[in-house]
Protein backbone atom coordinates (compact mmCIF):
# COMPACT_ATOMS: atom_id res chain seq x y z
CA UNK A 1 0.00 0.00 0.00
CA UNK A 2 2.84 2.36 0.87
CA UNK A 3 4.43 1.49 -2.40
CA UNK A 4 1.26 2.41 -4.27
CA UNK A 5 1.17 5.77 -2.56
CA UNK A 6 4.75 6.53 -3.53
CA UNK A 7 4.00 5.40 -7.02
CA UNK A 8 0.92 7.66 -7.18
CA UNK A 9 2.87 10.61 -5.77
CA UNK A 10 5.66 10.12 -8.31
CA UNK A 11 3.16 9.74 -11.09
CA UNK A 12 1.39 12.93 -9.97
CA UNK A 13 4.71 14.76 -9.86
CA UNK A 14 5.63 13.60 -13.36
CA UNK A 15 2.23 14.60 -14.68
CA UNK A 16 2.48 18.06 -13.17
CA UNK A 17 5.93 18.52 -14.70
CA UNK A 18 4.65 17.39 -18.09
CA UNK A 19 1.55 19.56 -17.88
CA UNK A 20 3.71 22.47 -16.81
CA UNK A 21 5.91 22.02 -19.89
CA UNK A 22 2.89 21.98 -22.15
CA UNK A 23 1.55 25.24 -20.76
CA UNK A 24 4.59 27.26 -21.77
CA UNK A 25 3.52 27.52 -25.42
CA UNK A 26 0.09 28.63 -24.22
CA UNK A 27 1.74 31.41 -22.28
CA UNK A 28 3.76 32.37 -25.36
CA UNK A 29 0.59 32.29 -27.45
CA UNK A 30 -1.15 34.49 -24.93
CA UNK A 31 1.83 36.84 -24.95
CA UNK A 32 1.75 36.90 -28.76
CA UNK A 33 -1.98 37.72 -28.67
CA UNK A 34 -1.34 40.49 -26.16
CA UNK A 35 1.52 41.74 -28.33
CA UNK A 36 -0.73 41.84 -31.42
CA UNK A 37 -3.42 43.67 -29.45
CA UNK A 38 -0.81 46.11 -28.19
CA UNK A 39 0.44 46.68 -31.73
CA UNK A 40 -3.10 47.31 -33.00
CA UNK A 41 -3.68 49.73 -30.14
CA UNK A 42 -0.45 51.54 -30.99
CA UNK A 43 -1.53 51.82 -34.63
CA UNK A 44 -4.89 53.21 -33.52
CA UNK A 45 -3.07 55.75 -31.34
CA UNK A 46 -0.84 56.67 -34.28
CA UNK A 47 -3.85 57.42 -36.47
CA UNK A 48 -5.57 59.32 -33.66
CA UNK A 49 -2.48 61.37 -32.85
CA UNK A 50 -2.12 62.59 -36.44
CA UNK A 51 0.94 60.58 -37.33
CA UNK A 52 -0.84 59.22 -40.41
CA UNK A 53 -1.32 61.42 -43.44
CA UNK A 54 -3.36 61.15 -46.62
CA UNK A 55 -2.10 61.96 -50.10
CA UNK A 56 -3.66 61.75 -53.54
CA UNK A 57 -1.67 60.01 -56.26
CA UNK A 58 -2.83 60.54 -59.84
CA UNK A 59 -1.64 60.60 -63.42
CA UNK A 60 0.41 57.78 -64.92
CA UNK A 61 0.11 55.29 -62.02
CA UNK A 62 -1.54 51.87 -61.95
CA UNK A 63 -4.21 52.74 -59.34
CA UNK A 64 -4.80 56.47 -58.84
CA UNK A 65 -6.44 57.35 -55.55
CA UNK A 66 -6.05 58.61 -52.01
CA UNK A 67 -3.61 56.70 -49.83
CA UNK A 68 -2.74 56.63 -46.12
CA UNK A 69 0.93 56.94 -45.23
CA UNK A 70 2.95 57.42 -42.09
CA UNK A 71 4.02 60.98 -41.42
CA UNK A 72 7.49 61.56 -42.90
CA UNK A 73 6.93 59.19 -45.83
CA UNK A 74 8.44 59.87 -49.24
CA UNK A 75 6.85 60.25 -52.68
CA UNK A 76 8.21 56.89 -53.85
CA UNK A 77 6.27 55.17 -51.04
CA UNK A 78 3.03 56.81 -52.16
CA UNK A 79 3.71 55.74 -55.76
CA UNK A 80 4.29 52.15 -54.58
CA UNK A 81 0.92 52.16 -52.80
CA UNK A 82 -0.67 53.34 -56.07
CA UNK A 83 0.69 50.26 -57.83
CA UNK A 84 3.75 51.94 -59.31
CA UNK A 85 4.10 53.99 -62.46
CA UNK A 86 2.73 52.84 -65.81
CA UNK A 87 4.79 52.32 -68.96
CA UNK A 88 3.61 55.71 -70.24
CA UNK A 89 4.90 57.55 -67.17
CA UNK A 90 7.62 60.18 -67.18
CA UNK A 91 8.73 59.63 -63.58
CA UNK A 92 11.93 61.61 -64.14
CA UNK A 93 9.96 64.83 -63.56
CA UNK A 94 9.23 63.95 -59.91
CA UNK A 95 11.66 63.99 -56.99
CA UNK A 96 10.65 60.64 -55.51
CA UNK A 97 12.84 61.17 -52.43
CA UNK A 98 10.86 64.24 -51.36
CA UNK A 99 8.79 63.97 -48.17
CA UNK A 100 5.03 64.20 -48.50
CA UNK A 101 2.70 66.20 -46.30
CA UNK A 102 -0.92 65.61 -45.37
CA UNK A 103 -3.19 66.61 -48.23
CA UNK A 104 -0.50 66.60 -50.93
CA UNK A 105 -1.38 65.68 -54.49
CA UNK A 106 1.28 63.75 -56.35
CA UNK A 107 0.86 63.86 -60.11
CA UNK A 108 2.97 61.61 -62.32
CA UNK A 109 3.12 63.03 -65.81
CA UNK A 110 2.75 60.94 -68.94
CA UNK A 111 5.64 60.91 -71.42
CA UNK A 112 5.47 63.99 -73.62
CA UNK A 113 3.02 65.77 -71.32
CA UNK A 114 3.76 69.45 -71.00
CA UNK A 115 3.79 71.02 -67.57
CA UNK A 116 1.09 73.63 -66.92
CA UNK A 117 3.74 76.36 -66.45
CA UNK A 118 5.12 75.63 -69.91
CA UNK A 119 1.61 75.82 -71.36
CA UNK A 120 1.03 79.15 -69.61
CA UNK A 121 4.26 80.57 -71.06
CA UNK A 122 3.25 79.37 -74.51
CA UNK A 123 -0.19 80.96 -74.08
CA UNK A 124 1.33 84.25 -72.89
CA UNK A 125 3.49 84.52 -76.02
CA UNK A 126 0.59 84.86 -78.45
CA UNK A 127 -2.41 85.03 -76.11
CA UNK A 128 -4.03 81.95 -77.67
CA UNK A 129 -5.15 78.81 -75.83
CA UNK A 130 -3.76 75.59 -77.29
CA UNK A 131 -6.61 73.07 -77.43
CA UNK A 132 -4.13 70.19 -77.29
CA UNK A 133 -2.35 71.22 -74.09
CA UNK A 134 -4.69 73.55 -72.18
CA UNK A 135 -5.91 72.67 -68.72
CA UNK A 136 -9.55 72.89 -67.71
CA UNK A 137 -8.91 76.26 -66.05
CA UNK A 138 -7.20 77.65 -69.16
CA UNK A 139 -10.06 76.50 -71.39
CA UNK A 140 -12.53 78.20 -69.06
CA UNK A 141 -10.87 81.57 -69.80
CA UNK A 142 -12.38 81.39 -73.30
CA UNK A 143 -15.72 83.18 -73.81
CA UNK A 144 -18.65 80.77 -73.71
CA UNK A 145 -16.58 77.90 -72.26
CA UNK A 146 -17.61 76.90 -68.75
CA UNK A 147 -16.50 73.97 -66.66
CA UNK A 148 -18.76 71.43 -68.41
CA UNK A 149 -17.56 72.39 -71.90
CA UNK A 150 -13.92 72.51 -70.75
CA UNK A 151 -14.27 68.97 -69.40
CA UNK A 152 -15.88 67.89 -72.69
CA UNK A 153 -12.94 69.32 -74.65
CA UNK A 154 -10.44 67.45 -72.48
CA UNK A 155 -12.47 64.23 -72.66
CA UNK A 156 -12.64 64.48 -76.47
CA UNK A 157 -8.89 65.09 -76.61
CA UNK A 158 -8.20 62.04 -74.43
CA UNK A 159 -10.50 59.80 -76.49
CA UNK A 160 -9.57 61.01 -79.99
CA UNK A 161 -6.06 62.38 -79.67
CA UNK A 162 -4.95 65.91 -80.43
CA UNK A 163 -7.06 68.35 -82.39
CA UNK A 164 -5.67 68.72 -85.93
CA UNK A 165 -7.47 71.99 -86.68
CA UNK A 166 -9.41 74.50 -84.59
CA UNK A 167 -12.62 73.60 -86.43
CA UNK A 168 -12.46 70.12 -84.81
CA UNK A 169 -13.75 71.88 -81.70
CA UNK A 170 -17.25 71.90 -83.26
CA UNK A 171 -17.28 68.08 -83.10
CA UNK A 172 -17.86 68.44 -79.37
CA UNK A 173 -21.48 68.44 -78.23
CA UNK A 174 -22.56 71.91 -77.13
CA UNK A 175 -19.98 73.75 -79.22
CA UNK A 176 -21.50 74.93 -82.48
CA UNK A 177 -21.02 77.92 -84.82
CA UNK A 178 -22.08 80.52 -82.26
CA UNK A 179 -19.60 79.53 -79.55
CA UNK A 180 -16.89 78.71 -82.09
CA UNK A 181 -17.16 82.16 -83.73
CA UNK A 182 -16.61 83.80 -80.30
CA UNK A 183 -13.41 81.86 -79.55
CA UNK A 184 -11.84 80.98 -82.91
CA UNK A 185 -9.38 83.90 -82.74
CA UNK A 186 -8.30 82.88 -79.23
CA UNK A 187 -7.45 79.23 -79.85
CA UNK A 188 -4.80 77.19 -81.65
CA UNK A 189 -3.88 73.53 -82.09
CA UNK A 190 -0.08 73.43 -82.62
Brief summary:
The protein has 190 residues and is mostly helical. The chain is 47% helix and 12% strand. The chain has three domains: 1-34; 52-108, Ubiquitin-like (UB roll); 116-188, Photosystem II 12 kDa extrinsic protein (DNA polymerase, domain 1), CATH 1.10.150.320.
- Count of domains: 3
CATH class of the largest domain: Mainly Alpha
- Separate helix tally: 6
CATH architecture of the largest domain, please? Orthogonal Bundle
Quickly give the structural class.
mainly alpha
Shape: rod-shaped
**End-to-end CA span:** 111 Å
Roughly how much helix do the residues carry, as a percent range?
A: 40-55%
Q: What is the CATH homologous superfamily assignment of the largest domain?
A: Photosystem II 12 kDa extrinsic protein
The radius of gyration over CA amounts to 33 Å
Average pLDDT, all residues: 79
Major β-sheet strand ordering: 2-1-3
Order of helices and strands: HEEHEHEHHHE
Low-pLDDT runs of 5+ residues are 23-27, 44-48
Can you summarize the main beta sheet? 3 strands, mixed
User: If you consult CATH, what is the topology of the largest domain?
Assistant: DNA polymerase, domain 1
Task: Report the strand count.
Answer: 5
Strand content: 5-15%
